[in-house]
Amino acid sequence: MSKIIFLDVDGTLVDYDCIIPESAVTAIRRARASGHRVYICTGRSKAEVYPELWDIGLDGMIGGNGSYVEDQGQVVMHQVISLEQCRRIVDWLHERKLEFYLESNNGLFASEHFEEAAPPALKEYRRRKGDTDVSEVTVASCFPDMIFGGELYRDDLNKVSYLLGSYQDYLDTKAHFPDMENGTWGGVGETALFGDLALKGINKGNAISRLLEHLNAKQEDTIAFGDAKVDIPMLEYCAVGVAMGNGGKEIKEAADFITDDVTCDGLFKAFEKLNLI
């Protein structure tokens, strides 16, 4: 029976050096040749889904942690932060002197000093993911197409990420924007490196539900793969949830089973175990 497969990108399909294991490419192509559908389900906006990902062969994508759904090039759903909400967020972050970037399908738009302020946090993020040499980590290496000097008051945003000076910055932002979905990433609790803001009710599980309605497909035929806390809603929603070996404790506890690390052919081994290839 054909399955519908949902893959997180960073830490699941792509390793922390932004390399796609060849075994993962082989697994996806064989699965699709066998009649299964494969979608990426990622925090990235479409602007960050580079040609090497599409070239693998995908049926579509869920982006912005669930704010955008696309099937075979057709937009199924796109919920964006309003221009008014964007103004409030940008003005607040400027007032707090917190550097940020705006995530849109049309590009990533950095605040005035993000390029100089972000490298320490990006290097620490990579260290925590097991990278032993972070000397070459820069904003350009992590976000090659980031736009500097662009318009910051926008009506096309999926979400906003901002650098945390301290965990209190997140708590204050959460209190100031109770109408938004507030999260952190790059660490657990007070070790977080970034905060983020999105529309209320946005998550990967809800987006998968919308896609299944569009496809007239069944929840019982779904399989999800992820490595981070933000992936838990899709693992809980799908019939089978698989955590990567490099994933955190929380997602491993939410998974039906745990495969190997992304760099150790984890996707390929799981596809084999699930008889997808």
Describe the structure.
This protein has helices at 22-33, 51-54, 83-95, 114-117, 119-128, 139-142, 167-176, 204-215, 232-237, 249-254, 266-273; strands at residues 4-7, 37-41, 60-63, 68-71, 74-78, 100-104, 107-110, 147-148, 157-163, 180-185, 194-199, 222-226, 240-243, 257-258. The mean pLDDT is 95. It has 11 helices and 14 strands. α1 (22-33) runs parallel beside α11 (266-273). With 277 residues, the protein is of the alpha/beta class.
What does the radius of gyration come to? 18 Å
Strand content: 15-25%
Overall pLDDT: 95
Placed side by side, the strands forming the largest sheet appear as 5-4-3-2-1-12-13-14
User: What's the overall geometry?
Assistant: globular
Order of helices and strands: EHEHEEEHEEHHHEEHEEHEHEHEH
Distance between the termini: 12 Å
Structural class: alpha/beta
Fraction of residues in helix: 25-40%
Low-confidence stretches: none
Record field, number of beta strands: 14
